[in-house]
Amino acid sequence: MPTILVTGGTGYIGSHTVVELLEEGMEVVIIDNFSNSDRKVLDGIAEITGKYPLFEEVDLRDRQSTYAVFKKYPEIEAIIHFAAFKAVGESVEKPLSYYENNLLSLIHLLEAMKRYGVANFVFSSSCTVYGEPDSLPVAEDAPIKKANSPYGNTKQICEEILLDTQESTPENRVISLRYFNPIGAHPSARIGELPLGIPNNLVPFITQTAIGIRDYLKVFGTDYNTPDGSAIRDYINVVDLAKAHVVAIRRLLDNRQKASFEVFNLGTGKGLSVLEIIQTFENATGEKLDYRVVKRREGDVEQVYADTSYANSELGWKAEKGIEETLLSAWNWEKFIHSKKSAL
Ligand code: WQD
C-alpha cells in the first residue's frame, strides 16, 4: 500500500485525515512541529486505528530537515499538505510570520518533491479565497477576490505557486481542496479540534461556553441581509472532509485526474446561520447556550456556501453527516477533553 506524507498531521483536519488513510490500509508519515497541536494527538490516532503513524518532528521552514524526511522515507508516493498557520485575526497582527511559515513550507516541500521524485500533491486550501462571493452557491470557477486577511492571501499565493510550478514540473499532479467551514470531531471523541487559547472559530467557542470554560458566546452581528440577520456559512463534518482527502489521493495515485492541477470545493452545499447553529446545538445536546449579540467581526463575509456538484460528480464524494450529529460530536469531544483535564 502507498506511503503518504501528511504535513500538519497532528492538527485538526490532518489528524482526522491520518485516521482515514490508516483505516484504508495506507502507510502514513506525519511531519509536524506542534506549533498548533499536541503530541497526544498521536495517541488518539493510535487508539482509534490500532496503529501509530510514523512521525517526524520537523519545521518545514527548515529546508535541510525537510529534505531529510524524504531521504529517510524514499517510499513516500504522495503528500497531503496541511501544515500552515490558520487564524485569520492573528494573521492581521503577525503578517510576516504567516507569509514566512505558509509560503516557505510549501516552497521547501515542492523543492523536496523535485529532488526526491515525488509527484502527487494534495493542498489544504480554503473557501476564504473567494472572499465575499458575487453569487451563491460558490463554484470552483468563481472569481478569486482580494483576500480579507494575510492568512487568506497566503492560501491564494500558495495556489498560484502550485499553478506556476506546473510549467516547470509537468510531472506533478496537484489537487487543491478548498474547505468551507470544517467542524465536529471523530465519533470516538478521541481526536477533535484543539484550539490553543481563546477559540477563533464558532463551534469550539460554543462547546467551551456550554462546558463552562467561556462565560458566554458573542454572536458577531445580526444585522446582515440574511433570514435571521446572522451570517451564513457551509459547515462540513471534519470526518467527511477527511474522507475527501483519501478520495483525492486515490485519484492522483490511480492517475485518474484530467489535468495536473485541479480544484474542488468541499462543503455540504447548505448554508446555515450562526443563530441556526446555536439552536441546533441546543436541540441536539439539551444544553442551553448563553450568547449575546455584539457588533460584526472585522473581515467577516455575510454568506458563503459551496456548490458541491463538481466534487460530487468528478470525485464521487459527498458530505454525508448531518449538522445535528456533527455538533453532537463536537460536544462529546469537548466533554472528553474536560474529563481528561479534571482527571489530571
Ligand atoms: C463562522 C461564523 C462568525 C466565532 C474561518 C476561516 C476559514 C477557516 C474557518 C481555516 C462567522 C461567527 C464566530 C464567535 C461568532 N479557517 N462567529 N462568534 O470566519 O467563517 O472561517 O475559519 O481553515 O478559512 O476564514 O469561521 O468559525 O470563525 O466563524 O458569531 O465567537 O461564526 O462571525 O459568521 P469563518 P468562524
How would you describe what is shown here?
By secondary structure, the protein is α/β, with parallel strands linked by helices. It contains 11 helices and 13 strands. Strand 5, helix 6 and strand 6 form a beta-alpha-beta unit. Helix 7 crosses helix 11. The longest helix is centred in the N-terminal third of the chain and has 22 residues. It binds UDP-4-deoxy-4-formamido-beta-L-arabinopyranose.
What key phrases describe this protein's structure?
single chain, 344 residues, alpha/beta, seven-stranded parallel beta sheet, two-stranded parallel sheet, 11 helices, 17% strand, globular, binds UDP-4-deoxy-4-formamido-beta-L-arabinopyranose
Order of the strands making up the biggest sheet:
3-2-1-4-5-6-11
Main sheet summary: 7 strands, parallel
| Overall pLDDT | 96
Query: Unreliable runs, pLDDT <50, ≥5 residues?
Result: none
Strand-pairing-aware structural class = alpha/beta
Q: Secondary-structure element order, as H and E?
A: EHEHEHEHHEHEEHEEEHEEHEHH
Per DSSP, the total helix count is 11
Hetero compounds: UDP-4-deoxy-4-formamido-beta-L-arabinopyranose
Q: Which percent range fits the helix content?
A: 40-55%
Which band does the percent of strand residues land in? 15-25%
Give the CA-based shape: globular
Report the end-to-end length measured between terminal Cα atoms. 39 Å
What value does the Rg take, in angstroms? 19 Å
Number of strands: 13
